[in-house]
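Re: your question about tRNA-specific adenosine deaminase

S., sorry for the slow reply, the queue was backed up all week. Below is exactly what I fed in.
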Amino acid sequence: MTPDEAMGRALELAADAAGWGDTPIGAVVLGPDGAVLAEAANERERDGDPTAHAEVLALRAAARVHGDGWRLTGCTLVVTLEPCTMCAGAAVLSRVGRVVYGAADPKAGAAGSLWDVVRDRRLNHRPQVQAGVREEECATLLRAFFRARRGL
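Result:
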């Protein structure tokens, strides 16, 4: 599966999250061969868990099936919104090879917008980053969710 195709699936997952009242963010982890290892949507509201971000849930699930313990070497994390500091840190610590995201997050993004955790030279692993994949679709979904939530 290509990152563009995986982003399509992440967008579907994000829409599901909006259905249960969570911020519409979806994530897919691709194995080194491009096969889907895991996928998730935000579940903070559903589970009452502040760490239940789509990226963290997908990385956890991928680690259970990848076969190299917790290391996701050669894998790609595809997510609809630029990862926050927690999720960017999880990407680094899981050793993913690449982070692909759709919409930038100028308020909390940690893959180049506000911070750049994933490429911090002080860390022992730095995934490649590809930004802007299906960016407008990702941003539109988020904007619609927050407009509805604010009654605009």
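The first strand starts at residue 26 and ends at 30. The chain is about 40% helix and 15% strand.

Happy to talk it through on Thursday.
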